[in-house]
Each structure stands twice: as C-alpha cells, then as structure tokens.
Amino acid sequence: MSKDSPTLIAVDWGTTSLRAYLLGGRGVILDRLEAARGVQNVDKGDHEAALAGLIGAWRQGEAPPILLSGMVGSRQGWVEAPYVRTPAGLGETAAAIVTIDSKTLGAIGVVPGVLTEGAALGPDVMRGEETQIFGALAASGRADGLFVLPGTHSKWARVEKGRIVRFATYMTGEAFAALREHTILARLMAAGGEDPAGFAAGVAAAKALSAPGELLHAIFMTRTLGLFDRLAPAQLPEYLSGLLIGAEMLAAAKDGGEAATVIGSPALTRRYCEAGQSLGLRLDAAPDGCVALGQQALFAAWRGSAD
Questions:
Q1: What is the pTM for the complete model shown?
Q2: Chain centroid offset of residue 16 CA
C-alpha cells in the first residue's frame, strides 16, 4: 500500500488535549488535528461525539480504523482499559487492547496503560507514555534503554529487549505549578521568559542536596533568595523549575540513568538536556512523532494477533 494512502487514525487523548493523526504507510503523518477536548473537558457519554466532530472529514469514503491511547482509557475516560503489568512489550500491550463498538465510528481500539509493582513505595502507572516509548523504539531501532517523558507527571522508564520492565513517576510539573501559583513563593515571583542563570542556579541547588528532606528546605529558599535580592523576581520561577527538575533527575539516576532518551516537547526536552549536562547525565532528544509511530506499531501487533 502507498505510504500516501490512509491506513490508521491514531488518537492521543490525554487529560487536557485531544490530538489525532491521519497515518499512511510506515507511520507517515498525512494530517493532524488538535482540540482542547481532553478527558477532563468531556462529559461521560460525550466522547463519541467529541471524536466524531474532530475527525469527521477523515471518515469520508472507505474510512481507516481508529486506535486511541492515553487517559481516554482511564476510569475517567470513555471506557476503562485495564492495565498491563510489567514487563510489557508490544505483544502484551496489543493483546490487551479494548474494543469500543461505536455507532457512528465503527470499532475503535483503546490501548491499555501499564502497571509496575516493583517500587518500594507502592504501585506506579502510566497511560499514553507506553505508546510514545514504543514509538521511540521503532524510530531508533533499539530494544533497550532509559526513557524520560517530562511533563505534569514525569516518567522515567527502563526498557529491556523491547519491553518496559519498570518505571517511576515524578509529580514535577504539577508540583511546580502548585508552588508557583498557590503558595507564598508566588508573591515575589514575576513573569518572564526563560532565564538560563536562574535555571542553572536551581539545578546547582538540587545537586547540593544531601538528603531527601533538604528539598523542602531548598524550595523555601526560592523565597529568601528573592527577599535578599540574590535572584531577580523573574529568575525565581526558573530557579524553582531547575531545583525540581534537578531533584527529579538525581533521584531517577539511581536506576543507572547516566544516559537516557527524552520524549517531550522541544522546550521541556531542551530544559532537561541542559540540566543533564550540569548533573553529568547524557540526555538525547527522541525524534518527532513518537506517538504516531507507537500507535502504528501497536496497531500492527494488534491486527497481527487478530489474524
């Protein structure tokens, strides 16, 4: 089949955003659409209408199949797709795909999340990140490595022989937003663009931490550094960002994180790579389109298992 012929509608449906990709052969992106219709913005029972409203133009004539991944498969989403336990590769994940019988869109596949039980503090989960990891593996031709997915809830995942064997979640992005907007720290902070000096100071402060509880002390220093004009108001958010990202990276590096691949937005990827240089960790950016490539790989494994 020509790579220009649509073969799959791949949908990345997260908490805040709905992104759809029209894919051709070998995962080539022919078109893409996006809407602020994340799971938290769609009422129960309205998911079919929300998706149909976005991708309707792609459903003319012989419509390609649809595969969804992300929080749409959570308890708060369209239908709950039970977690697959680690170690989880393409085969295990594709075998657990749940099918929705949609009246207007036909049969739709929903990719499950992944659960790991090995952590001392309790179970850990991901939804959507597994698809991006499979896409990064497909793009690189690799079967092993450490993968970083920065964001609201950052993930560090270890992959061995093409299977996700363990991972850890860090609430770095959400903690930054809460501290930045809803604590006393916010009173001295000013909005501004990226400030490399402020960010580097935060990363250096994280590197100096010697015990887990010291992070709480260092967070408060965001205020005192502003009170005594050690950092300018516009530098304080950057300091806090560098501090939290640096602490996350140092904790995750205990899993042999001397080298890792970052799957994220260009801005976050750049930030993590800069912090990695300061902390002695080699981080490289994954190629664009990992979600689409992961969806394509999962769909091929799913279709193959059904044949």
A1: 0.92
A2: 12
